[in-house]
Design a protein that fits this description.
This protein is of the alpha+beta class. It has helices at 10-22, 27-40, 50-61, 90-95, 100-115, 123-129, 140-152, 167-180, 210-217; strands at residues 25-26, 66-72, 79-85, 121-122, 156-159, 162-165, 186-187, 194-195, 198-200, 207-209. It has three domains: 10-64, no CATH class; 91-174, Winged helix-like DNA-binding domain superfamily/Winged helix DNA-binding domain (Arc Repressor Mutant, subunit A, Orthogonal Bundle); 185-236, Zinc/RING finger domain, C3HC4 (zinc finger) (Herpes Virus-1).
């Protein structure tokens, strides 16, 4: 602790500003941004030092209860970065952007997704909740619009009428989800981050993200669970 944290340069500040305005940034974009910020600010740039660059920013964000966190997309396994406010829960964070009714719809959607078998909730199931909200009943048309906004704001993502949590949401709300859904929320056995869309071992119950499953069983003729060594009965992607 006697060692001073590395100096925060304009390059660090510029990087942080872009990350905050993006909400979430893909790894390849973050690497380009890192290079651009260093070159613009004429400071030393090393292509393999993005994590160190981010650590410096994080040491300055610590007193503000903020942090740049890295997470992986459950879809393709690619790295993403998001700025997380550690002092607020998901609800207080979103409360400034959405009405009470919209937040209730979001929480109920989150319930459906997390409690589902595969990490998805159908639009039909979500829209059926719209007229059961405690705060104020919502018409289906209205609920459809709200879901659209959640997708645009990168809290949810949608594929063929099925909704799941966006990577941004998973990175920012990991702690909230782990503490509020203790019985069902699990971390991936391989990358140790929260797994919403996952495959689960029928024998010992561990879960793994689909991209992690793909990576782990690549080239194995008989897939076996990394924990209990029993045969992995799910169809590997």
């Amino acid at each position: 602790n006697t060692q001073m944290a590395a100096q925060m340069t304009n390059a660090h500040r510029r990087f942080l500003q872009v990350l905050m305005s993006n909400g979430i940034t893909e790894g390849s974009e973050a690497r380009k941004l890192h290079q651009h910020c260093c070159e613009t600010d004429k400071v030393y740039y090393a292509h393999d030092k993005l994590d160190d660059f981010i650590s410096t920013i994080n040491s300055h964000l610590q007193p503000l209860f903020m942090q740049i966190r890295k997470g992986i997309s459950e879809d393709n396994g690619r790295a993403h970065y998001a700025v997380v406010n550690l002092a607020e829960t998901e609800v207080t964070k979103m409360a400034s952007d959405y009405t009470e009714t919209e937040l209730e719809l979001f929480r109920k959607t989150m319930d459906l997704i997390i409690l589902s078998e595969n990490g998805f909730a159908s639009s039909t199931d979500i829209l059926n909740l719209a007229d059961q909200l405690k705060t104020k009943k919502m018409k289906k048309k209205e609920a459809e619009q709200v879901l659209k906004v959640f997708v645009e704001d990168k809290w949810l993502s949608e594929k063929n009428g099925e909704y799941t949590l966006h990577t941004r949401c998973i990175i920012e709300m990991e702690q909230y989800i782990l503490s509020n859904y203790q019985d069902v929320a699990r971390k991936c056995n391989l990358c140790h981050s929260l797994a919403i869309q996952s495959q689960v071992c029928e024998s010992c119950g561990i879960g793994m993200h689909l991209p992690c499953v793909r990576k782990y069983f690549k080239g194995q003729t008989e897939p076996r669970c990394p924990k209990c060594n029993e045969f992995w009965s799910c169809d590997t992607p």
